[in-house]
Specification:
The protein is of the alpha+beta class. The protein has eight helices and four strands; from the N terminus they run H-H-E-E-H-H-E-H-H-E-H-H. 17% of the residues are buried.
């Protein structure tokens, strides 16, 4: 039922990495919930005790500038950015369902939580794949060293060894021969 409201791809595009956390902006959440950003923020301020710093924080000026440059916004006024937005971590988004008590908010939160879980699974698979790739690379390097040693041994066996004539009894070598 949640996917009927919002496709997963739309939610994924609204999740950003800021301060090492996957977060969503207040304006994007308000849009998904079908309320104005001001209404969302008022509901949060009335319940501010539910939103510690690891659930919600306000972007710094530098973070805002970085976010704006990431999404290539040329005109702030068109975006309605008059202040630094609040961003919500996964836990903060989950807490929003208790503040915005509507059927739409519940369904949107379910869709968002599923998207966060999917992103975690993808990230986990990426880490596992990177680990396996590094392991394979180490094994390959070890095999390369071993193969190189085998080729060196074969080359030594194949290399002609200079043969000095054995001195024979009664034979005097030419003094100019070395």
């Amino acid at each position: 039922m949640a996917n009927k409201f919002i496709p997963e791809e739309i939610i994924e595009r609204k999740i950003f990495m800021i301060r090492g956390h996957k977060v969503m902006l207040d304006r994007d959440l308000a849009e998904l919930y079908g309320v104005r950003t001001m209404v969302l923020n008022q509901a949060i301020k009335r319940n501010i005790g539910r939103f510690p710093k690891d659930f919600m924080f306000q972007l710094s000026k530098e973070e805002l500038e970085n976010w704006i440059s990431q999404i290539v916004i040329s005109n702030r006024e068109k975006m309605g950015i008059r202040r630094k937005p609040y961003v919500f971590t996964e836990q903060g988004v989950a807490m929003l369902s208790s503040v915005l008590n509507s059927e739409r908010a519940i369904q949107v939160n379910i869709a968002i939580m599923r998207t966060f879980v999917k992103l975690k699974q993808i990230l986990s698979m990426d880490k596992e794949l990177a680990h396996k790739l590094a392991e394979l690379e180490r094994k390959t390097e070890k095999h390369d060293i071993e193969i190189h040693a085998i080729f060196e041994a074969i080359r030594k066996l194949m290399a002609p060894t200079p043969v000095k004539p054995k001195p024979q009894i009664g034979f005097k070598p030419d003094p100019e021969w070395k």
